[in-house]
Amino acid sequence: MSNRSCILLVDDHPLMRRGIVELLASTDDFEVVAEASSGREAIKVACQLRPEMILLDQHMPGGLSGLQVLDELRQLALPIQAVILTAQLNRNEFLSALQLGVAGYILKDADPEMLLAHLRRCRHGEIALSEEMVALLAHPDESQSAPSAELLSTLTPREGQTLALIAQGLSNKEIAREIGISDSTVKVYVKSLLSKLNMRSRLELAVWVYKSTGMNPKDS
């Protein structure tokens, strides 16, 4: 039985799709089970196949954008990890993607090996975030206030410890080993953090820590 993660690939450029399909086929980790060239087609295929992951182009001419597709998938409550591919550094789009629970945000000009590394991190429940996106966070929009650090006071010591380790990019298994607890207990803490801080993904948690404290989400 294959241990590969099933991926729905969405991009309006056939050449881009072919390159990514060939790249992922060269690994033992991923399998592209379907392709779509538009947002509407992506939603239809996702509902039919329910893949584990969707690799989604942010900017597709006409129809739905990647963020709009992600929004509809979330409304349908499909348990699919979403990774956005983008050719542009746009902070507002990035923050909107975080609010929609995106699992990763990657630039299209990333090296093939870097793309694979990001997808593997996402597959293992870690943060998949291009270095350029981290740098973008270092220049906050002055018109938007950062989340209040006072929310940290509502967390238990274990939740605070878990949050700090998530911000360092650790997976649940790595956090469990670091703290000395079970994987299932870490999952409980992560669920509690998302609920208390009103967030949808580990990536959004990590970025919240960065905005509140200045910690780089990729620091270890």
From TrEMBL:
Residues with PTM 4-aspartylphosphate: D57
- GO biological process, alphabetically ordered: phosphorelay signal transduction system; regulation of DNA-templated transcription
Does the entry feature the keyword Phosphoprotein, yes or no?
yes
Which is an annotated Pfam family here? Response_reg
What the entry lists under CDD domains is as follows: LuxR_C_like (cd06170), REC_NarL-like (cd17535)
Which residues does the UniProt record annotate as the domain Response regulatory? 6-123
Q: Which residues form the HTH luxR-type domain?
A: 148-213
Is Repeat one of the keywords UniProt gives this record? Answer: no
Write the record's keywords in alphabetical order, separated by commas.
DNA-binding, Phosphoprotein, Transcription, Transcription regulation
List the Gene Ontology MF annotations in alphabetical order: DNA binding
Q: Which domain of life is it from?
A: Bacteria
Task: Mark the transmembrane ranges.
Answer: none
What this protein is called in its record is Transcriptional regulator
> What is the species of this protein?
Lampropedia cohaerens
